Amino acid sequence: MNSINIQEGVKTIESIAFSDCTALTSVKLPDSVETIGSIDDYFSSDGVFYGCSKLTTVTLGKNLTTIGSGTFKKCTKLSTVEFAGQNIAEIGHSAFAETALENIVIPNKVKEIREHTFEYCKSLSSVTFPENLETIDETSFIGCSVLTNIKIPDKVTSIGSKAFEDCTSLENVQFGHSVEIIGDGAFANTKVKSIILPDGLKDIGDGFLVGIFEGCKELKTVVFQSSEDTEFTNIPSRMFKDCTNLTDVNILATVTTIESSAFANCTSLESIILPESVTVIENFAFGNCTSLKKIVIPESVTNITGGRWSSSFDGHSDELTIYGYTGTRAENYANEENIKFVALDGHIHESETYITEATCEDGGMKITRCKICGHLELEKTEYIAPKGHKNLTVTKEPTCTENGEKTGTCSDCGKTVTEIIPALGHSWSEWTVDPDNDKQEVRICANCGEKEYRDIDTPVLPTDPTPVPPTDPTPVPPTDPTPVPPTELPTFDPIPEPTPAPTQEPTTDPRPDGKVVDTGATAPLMAVFTLIASSVSVALLKKRRKNDTD
User: Fold this and answer.
1) What is the mean pLDDT of residues 23-47?
2) 372 close to 345: Cβ distance less than 8 angstroms
């Protein structure tokens, strides 16, 4: 069997339904199918088409919402997946792992790319992320060895550990403005040349096993952007370990600790200026930085690891000079390690402006700082926006619900790129009564003519909106409403045996008989208590007068 024909009407295809069908070459799902497999499947081998090694093309129906875990994993010849609609909201882990996909435009409703989703797709050269994406989980694109460019959407807040590790052709990464978390090894062993990190970073891993940019041997420039919201305080362990081409990095004034091996083996790094917030430089932080000639260490630094086996600057150049202040840990460390020391006490700032040029895809930075001590003039710091690719041709016009595309070779950078043109969104008219049905309203999109309907809500009126007064709202006063003064009350002889009170005939007078009269409104609680107390007092007075008469 090299193809399957699933009839219209089928809504769900269960896990492992067609797994290991090694003769299957193409699949076209009807529009009625809503779910393929389950995103909760723990084992990726439970995928619906897992291991269909000759499957080359897949067309997914308009109403599909869920692609389960491992659905197409190990479909090693699958190169084309067509999405007939934009309703897919969830894609399970490992769904397209180890396939031959060449490019992928992820549907707009997807908010999370789960772990291993596209791992080891070694033919994947282009990925277009949806603008609603919020999370890129760990190892989601690990080993995509021909992927060259990625642009992280502005709503993404988290990039998981090893998300793009070993993407050995990846040269350009553009971060969105909302990224707060980047996990360990997220971009390790890639070909990125420059990185501009977003200003909202809060957590950038701990480097326990592999650093975020470890082994990026072509990385030359790193710019940490800052703002009032910048919170991260540590340059984590191994973050730039083995970045042998790194020459320029600015460290923000929020950083307090340079952790172990953070810049180890950065053999092209010649100078670095630490901000006045830094207090700790851990062991081997700048180990084997054999070209490092100048480092500025502020007074705030109280802990620099020394010693034979774990010195912060172990393997340093003979030309290394520490610039610092007399009487500080910097001077003491220089003396302990026999490193040249230059005192900065009383020096005059000599300002110098450094510019990292913006490219078509990446922003740049303009900063002014003292070329002696590195004091940063924050009021002169300026972010330079990306220039954007030039002379691209629109190949697919956007509609209200679907993205468009523009492609071409950029006249500035020479790259052949495809860019997404965001969907236009509907331009709705005001709601009006539907001329064909007076029980509903309609509005029409001015762009595409699509209509949207809603029922007209008919207000439900009470049966009688006017409160009905009680039969006799005014209590009948007693025969003599004036209490008899105590001096006029007769004296009663003791009664040997208590006698029951005579039965009274019911009257229309209001009495405390336990019944609730609905007047159409709720009386205040104090008024109710007052009415009961008044009724009881009248009844007792009447009884006393009757006994007196008898």
Assistant:
1) 91
2) no
